[in-house]
Amino acid sequence: MSDALAEFLRQKKRMQDQQNEQHAADKEQWPAGVESFYRCLEDWLADMIEEKIIFLHYEVLHVNEHKQGAVYTRKLNLFVGGDEIEFIPSKRVSVGATGHIEMKTNNVSMDFIRDGEGIWRHLCSRTPLKAYILTKQNFRELLLSVLS
Q1: What's the predicted TM-score (pTM) here?
Q2: CA dihedral 9, 11, 12, 18 (to 10 degrees)
């Protein structure tokens, strides 16, 4: 009976160690995914940034996860004329997603998710799930729609 207990506890410890390793990997992967999203936006908006009709400002964001501890990433503020658009990373993700960023204006809120393959998508509907691959063209159309 004590052998069964020892084996049970060893198995439990192995599972806990694996979970800790996964949490550590997630803690590094998540901010890297956020940065990849920002690099795409900077690339897609480069012409307007160079013309100084769009301005970017980053703020350090502290996200505290109970199990994973503190994670630091950046929040992006995009300034267009008199309008401000915030891109706020969140650890809250949908099933099957590895990242989530909320785009907020005074009037509109939109969600972007990163799928298991690292592709960012515009989340149009949760039920039924509809998420379209985010491209330069549709991102610029989304910006136009929230600014008009």
Answers
A1: 0.76
A2: 150
